[in-house]
Each structure stands twice: as C-alpha cells, then as structure tokens.
Amino acid sequence: MKELLITQPDFMETFSCVGTACREHCCKGQNVTLDRNRYQKYIKSPYAEIKRIAINQISVTQASLASWANIHPDSQGNCPFLDEQRLCQIHKHAGAHALSHSCATFPRVEHVYKNQKIKSMSLSCPEVTRQVLFSDDALTLRFSTINQYDYYKAPDIVIEERLVNRACAAIAASQQPNIEENLWAINCFLQNYQVWDDVNKIKMVEIDNLRTELIATMTAGQAAHELATMKIAPAISDELLNYLADFIAQLADIRGRNTLAAYAQPLLSYATNDLVEQNHNKQQLNNAWQQYALPFFTKHPSVWRNYFMFRIHHDQLAMGDDQAAVTVFNLQVIDFFYLKALISAYASHHGELTEDDVIGIIYSYHACRESTDNSSHIFKQNVIAWVLKEDFSLLSLLA
Q1: 387 and 261, same structural domain?
Q2: Which domain of life, per UniProt (predicted)?
Q3: Contacts of 358 (CB under 8 A, 6+ apart)
Q4: Within this chain, do residues 237 and 364 fall inside the same structural domain, yes or no?
C-alpha cells in the first residue's frame, strides 16, 4: 500500500452547501454535460418525471463517451430537474452517485500529483467566497494521509515549485497596512525566482532567504515608498476596463451574470471619451475607495490577505508548466484591479459598502470569469495578451 498526502484549506473541513438558502444556486445558468451511462439512466429512469424531463430537456451530442449529452436550462434559466422547493430530483430519487460529474463535485476542485492531492474550491460559489474572505483561519492548510494500492497516475510535485508557492503565500499572509505592499513583494520574489537559472538544484536556502528579506523590506516601509513613487499608466487601466465592459455586455445568461451586471452598472456608467471627464471619474473612484472601501477593509483585514492566499493555493502559483508564475500572478493582480474598480464605483454610487456587497461582487465576477461561455474565453484571452506585452507595467495597477 502507498501512503498519499491530502492537503486542503481549513474552511473546506467545515464547508457545507447552504442549499435553497443560497443567493444564487449552482443549478442556474449551467449547461451540464452527461456521460453515456448517466444519460441512459435518466431516460430509462423508473421515476416518470425524471424520464419525461430527460427526453424533453436533454440533447444528445455523442461527442465522446464522457461527453454524450447536455442538460439545458429551462425558460427561467434553472436546471429542469429542480422541483418546486429548488431541490434536485436526481439526487432525491436516484442518489448522489447518479449526478453528473460537475453536479457531484462543484464547487470542489482537486489538483492531483503522483503522491498527493491538493484540494480547493471555486470562488464562483457565494458560500465559498464568504468563508474564504471572512474567516481568519480559512487558508490555514490542513494535512491528512490516506493509504491506497498505488500512486496517482500523475506527475510528481517539483519540490522547488512547491516551496515558491508556499513562500508567496507567506508573503501574502504578512500583515501590512495595504495589500498592495504584499503584492509588490510577491512580484519582486517572482521576478528574482524567474532569473535563477540553476533549474536542477532545489534552492531551499535561496527561496527562504528571499522570502524573509522581502517581508522585512515591507515592514521597513520600502514597499509603501516604491508604490508611492510609482508612475501610473492610465492607458493600461483604460484598456483593461474596456475589456471588462465588453465582457459584461456580451455575456450570455449564465449564473452570476445578472448579479455582476447590477454591481457593475455604476462602473460602466463612468465610461466616456472625454479626457477631462475621465480624470474626474478616476478621482471620484479613488475618493470612494478612500472613504468607503478602505475603512471596510481595515475593519476586515482578512479579506484581501485571504483572497490572495486562496488564489496562490487555488491557481497552484509557480507549480506546473501551463503558464509562467509571473504571468499567473499578473492575471491575479488584474482580477484585483477589476474588483477594486467594481467595489469603488458601487460604493461611490450607494454611499456605503457591506459584507454582502463584497461577497456579491467577488463571487459573481469569478462565476462569470470562470464560465465556459465563449465571451469568458475571449475576455481571458484579451487579458492574457495584454499581460504578455513587453511594456506591461503590473505595478502601475497597484499605485
């Protein structure tokens, strides 16, 4: 038997779906893929209502055995298998084992390596967002072991990459007056890590020393000084906000879309081609951040620390070969830029900021951003293309 390590954040140990009390349940605005076996079970179900819905609401694609058919939302955007109490008839009558893979696992996510599994959850779930942002110990990692016959059929973790990931999380966890200082330090860390060229050596000492040095630098006020003297690049923020506006305008009726559109309306109303008015609007957003948002986040200091600790964990920053660590981090900072803009505009328009508002903005943004909808794909490609430009200045978004 092989012993395997299971890693998951603290909040996952107590997480429980709130069911019908959810502000925007996960059975809305989703096209659910079924494998052939489950499709056959539905259309041959002994429960007449399940069979009727399966015949009328499921389209067969036969794309593959794993992607055999799709369940389409009803006229109200809900899964047709929901009953009048918004409970799943499949789960109620046939059990959890009969659910599609996405229905059975959402919002859970697993990163599988040869001898360990790292678990996470999606911020597109409102309850996950609430627990991640507003629980002090939410991102404390918990470890357990299981025994099974063999290792997972997956690559092993690269120790150096895991150390870099945990070093970035430690920098994010350091309590500083503003989260932007932590992000400045993480950027410095990743830029240094990127130029180390001895790829065959596990640089434990170098990684630990750099982490310690950057935390001390933040504490000494160097990060705050660097950000205060940073030149703002308005062209970058203007272009990114145009991407966001186009994205929201083109979104299909997916889960989170209506919530995001409502929260984004104040920000979208600032759009103008007049340079003087643009500068006035930016100043108004900055004033709203200082007047409403900053006091809120000072009162709830865990929110942004936990957000970035979560993103570092969830995105497996610096782990794997899909994207360079610097690119992944740049995308995280752009998400932060968007969330700050949405929060500032909303607070400016309404004259207040509540916990519910912060949860609503962050979960709906992630629900739409992480969607498989084509507009989400285009949005992500546009942002990635901007990040990969040679003249992209990440720190100007933090100034």
Answers
A1: yes
A2: Bacteria
A3: 133, 296, 303, 343
A4: yes
The pLDDT assigned to 200 comes to 52
User: Could you list the mean pLDDT of each consecutive 10-residue stretch along the chain, which spans 399 residues?
Assistant: 91 85 80 88 89 88 87 85 84 86 88 94 96 94 90 88 96 95 96 67 82 96 91 84 94 90 92 68 87 95 97 95 89 96 95 96 96 89 88 79
| Angstrom distances, CA of residue 350 to CA of 34, 241, 360, 364 | 43, 21, 15, 19
Q: For residue 219, what are the contacts with CB-CB under 8 A and spacing of at least 6?
A: 174, 176
Question: Containing domain of residue 362, as a range?
Answer: 207-397
Does 192 fall in a domain? no
Look-up: residue for tokens 């959890």? 96
Cα separation, 67 vs 31, whole angstroms: 12
**Two structure tokens written together for 6:** 């299971």
By the 8 A CB rule, do 110 and 117 touch?
Answer: yes
- 243 plus 391 within the same structural domain: yes
Q: Does 8 map to a domain?
A: no
Cβ proximity of 127 and 21 under 8 Å: no
- Overall number of domains in the chain: 2
Give the predicted TM-score (pTM) of the model: 0.91
